[in-house]
Design goal:
Layout (H helix, E strand, L loop, with lengths): L7 E9 L6 E9 L4 E3 L1 E3 L1 H10 L2 E2 L25 H15 L5 H14 L3 H13 L17 H6 L16 H28 L12 E3 L25 E3 L2 E3 L2 H9 L3 H8 L4 H10 L6 H19 L1 H8 L6 E3 L19 H16 L8
Parallel strand pairs: 6-9
Antiparallel strand pairs: 1-2, 1-5, 2-3, 3-4, 7-8
Length: 369
């Protein structure tokens, strides 16, 4: 909206058709600003009305209900997703997307406070925070699929009472063990942070520069006097000395070197434009070892291009640490970025490598006295 990016997430719900009264699956999209899209544009309150009216169902209306577990304590299944708990999950997603605390965050804060002072008032606050978590998500809240949320359920059960009504009778020792469970988790997390601080000591502290998208572009009347970032393109015409020959562009060099026969190499090298060189190269017979050589050849050509032309090197290094997404339609997905998994973006990746090598060459290193 107006160029502003608003993050969102989606899930499936079931929407009732206005004519047939049958339900069909539809995407429900929730945004950080509280907007909710599901056929209609609404908000959390509007979504609640749609669910109450039956126009939207949070579970498949045609699916049979799962039988209740015989024992709440022994059950490994979450609570069923109800309209109330689903709305709680949606509200949490809005809070998470907007950078505000969720019910899970508030629960963990209540756990920490109870650890500091395991007194009854704080246990009551812990119980309130636990019940605030959407019921169908509670077994996942500790991130432990072996114990699930049992340590919390034990802590929240009074001494002498059975957990969940049919589980073990809670003792003071069980409360201490549940608290010890969280202490051990805190210690494990502390050790993990220490290990990560050492292992990731050179990780950048802040976010890098925004990604740079190198678009394919055509200039039928010739390149402008200051083409800017378009000098990064492989079809930018600039002489390159590589492997004993001079080529009019990276494309001239790449496709000429790919050819198996000398006459094809000469014809490609002499092509009037980079795209003519690509067309001739694509039709020529290639070297048998080209699949093993092509990446190294492209890297060499790019090093030569920017190493031999300081002005172009300045443009490349001016991009900082931005990820370079090399796009277009003329190159194969091996070289360019693409939305599907075939897009390897090797030109973009090699440009980033050459950029780092150019910066390295400008560094002065201390010498031993």
């Amino acid at each position: 909206m107006g160029g502003e990016r608003i993050d969102g997430v989606w899930c499936h719900v079931w929407r009732r058709h206005s004519y047939s009264e049958e339900y069909f699956v539809q995407d429900l999209v929730v945004f950080a600003d509280g907007a909710v899209h599901c056929g209609d544009r609404t908000d959390l309150a509007g979504l609640a009305k749609l669910i109450d009216s039956g126009r939207i169902a949070v579970r498949d209306p045609d699916a049979s209900d799962c039988p209740d577990d015989e024992s709440k304590w022994d059950s490994r299944s979450p609570e069923p997703c109800t309209p109330e708990s689903f709305l709680g999950e949606v509200a949490d997603k809005i809070e998470e997307l907007s950078g505000r605390p969720t019910s899970r965050d508030r629960l963990w804060e209540a756990i920490r406070r109870y650890q500091e002072e395991p007194a009854e008032p704080r246990r009551a606050l812990l119980r309130d925070a636990y019940l605030e978590v959407p019921a169908h998500l509670r077994i996942y809240v500790l991130g432990d699929m072996d114990r699930q949320d049992r340590p919390l359920r034990i802590l929240l059960t009074d001494l002498g009472e059975p957990v969940d009504g049919d589980g073990p009778v809670v003792t003071a020792a069980m409360h201490r063990e549940a608290l010890d469970y969280f202490r051990r988790g805190d210690e494990s997390a502390r050790r993990a942070r220490e290990w990560q601080a050492v292992q990731h000591a050179d990780d950048p502290e802040g976010p890098g520069a925004p990604a740079l998208v190198s678009h394919e572009v055509g200039y039928p009347r010739g390149w402008p006097e200051k083409p800017g970032l378009f000098v990064l393109r492989n079809d930018y015409p600039v002489p390159i000395d590589f492997a004993g020959e001079t080529y009019a562009s990276v494309l001239h060099g790449y496709w000429a070197l790919s050819a198996a026969h000398a006459e094809d190499r000469d014809r490609i090298r002499a092509a009037d434009t980079p795209h003519q060189a690509q067309q001739l190269g694509g039709r020529a017979e290639r070297r048998d070892d080209w699949p093993e050589l092509r990446l190294a050849v492209m890297a060499g050509l790019l090093r030569a291009k920017f190493g031999q032309h300081p002005g172009l090197a300045e443009v490349l290094t001016s991009t900082g640490d931005a990820r370079i997404s090399y796009t277009g339609l003329s190159d194969s997905p091996y070289w360019r970025d693409a939305r599907d998994d075939r897009g390897r973006n090797w030109v973009g990746r090699l440009l980033e490598l050459v950029r780092s090598e150019l910066l390295l060459a400008s560094v002065s290193w201390p010498t031993a006295e």
